[in-house]
Write a structure and sequence with these properties.
With about 350 residues, this protein is mainly beta. It has two domains: about 20-285, 6 Propeller (Neuraminidase); about 295-355. The protein is built from no helices and 31 strands. It has strands at about 20-25, 30-35, 40-45, 55-60, 65-70, 75-80, 85-95, 100-105, 110-115, 120-125, 130-135, 145-150, 155-160, 165-170, 175-180, 190-195, 200-205, 210, 220, 230-235, 245, 250-255, 265-270, 280-285, 295, 300-305, 315-320, 325-330, 335, 340-345, 350-355. The chain has a four-stranded antiparallel beta sheet, with no helix packed on it. A four-stranded antiparallel beta sheet has the order 4-5-6-7, with no helix packed on it.
Length: about 350
Amino acid sequence: MKGLLFLCVLAACVLPARAELFVSDFNSNHVLRYNETNGAFIDVFIPNTNGLLSLPHGLAFGPDGNLYAASAGNDRVLRYNGTNGAFIDTFINGAGLDYPVRLIFRPDGLLYVSSQLNDRVLRFNATNGSFASVFVTNSAALIGPSDMTFGPDGNLYVVGRFNHRVARYDGVTGAFMDVFVTNNLSQPFGLRFTSSHDLLVASGNDNRIQRFNGTSGQFVSSFTVDGGLGLPIGFVYGPDADLYVASFNTHKVGRYDSVSGAYLGDFVTNGSGGLSGPNFMAFRPPVRPGPILNAVGSASNALIGWPAKNIPAVLERSTSLVDPAWQVVTNSVFADGSTNTITLPCDADAAFFRLRSME
């Protein structure tokens, strides 16, 4: 029937949240754990009694439920028990890494790692850590890759810490596409897309998060201007869909509204639990239930909407739920401050929709 739409939501919506915040403590070579609701210190989750964790950077929970840490000081990725923090093994040792920073597990069964001092992104088997390939090769376009993220277009966006930019690479082949952001950044570190698909980048020397148009890369505004950030490094979305920012020089984690950028207070206060030089962070997955989609239709168009304050996701469509072939909906997202909407023309086919997390 023309114009009829059927909606579904992410399967994650039925899962319970256990989303403690884990923070890499650069100066102590520990990983600290905090309550996901009030930021209270819980424990030193990785006490590093064997001394293998050196200058910890990116953290990621793997498909096995364990916690992986980028050990930048000795070019390793270490694996720890996801429940009690006990050391399991050295998952990757060297293998082309030179100061590993960001870790991303992907549905393709690979672990992507940014390698800052040789300007590459490498891929490894997500099950056994064996080397798979050089995904992004070193070039003048990218100097000092720090954080990276896959965008709503499926491509990989990588921060160049030392040449103050964001470069974009084909999400399938790793081929260089373009320099996406070239201005208003000074020693950038972390980056994430917003729920309305703009790009946020931590500009360390500016002590703020900058906002760029997610399609053109043009500078929009300073997203955060308050909160006493001192060399912001990594930032992540929490279970409340707020933005949590590691402030390296002020030894805290600030909390910001992810839609307006308003400062909501210090989530982890200065030095809590011995915090000294917070770097990159991770919430225990699943971080947040998927939002409920809604539709408003007419004879010719339908508006698919979901709350603006949410974990960044991509709208996908399928004509069947039996062996569905999900396709990304490429129409522009309109954000009005409370709701994100996409306008679609109605056709004769029934359609099913879901929101898929970008990572």
